[in-house]
Write a structure and sequence with these properties.
The protein has 65 residues and is mainly α. The protein contains 3 helices and 2 strands, in the order H-E-H-H-E. The protein starts with a helix and ends with a strand.
């Protein structure tokens, strides 16, 4: 399945957070803004957001101020 342009951008932002093992609140807000910018969160974007949420929940990615 080909990624939408919005999902590609989300993917790169989320991959950066995964590599760093941390994400700031402002980066997180930017990710949410990117996902909702077009007024529709597609299936690919939902999957990426879910992955990030799971990694924050299990502390493999830390949410920092």
């Amino acid at each position: 399945m080909k990624l939408s342009s919005g999902a590609k951008s989300l993917r790169s932002m989320i991959e950066k957070a995964i590599e760093d093992h941390k994400i700031t609140k402002s980066e997180y807000e930017m990710i949410i803004h990117q996902a909702t910018a077009d007024g529709h969160v597609d299936k690919q974007e939902r999957a990426l957001l879910s992955l990030l949420q799971d990694m924050i929940a299990d502390k493999s990615v830390k949410l920092v101020p």
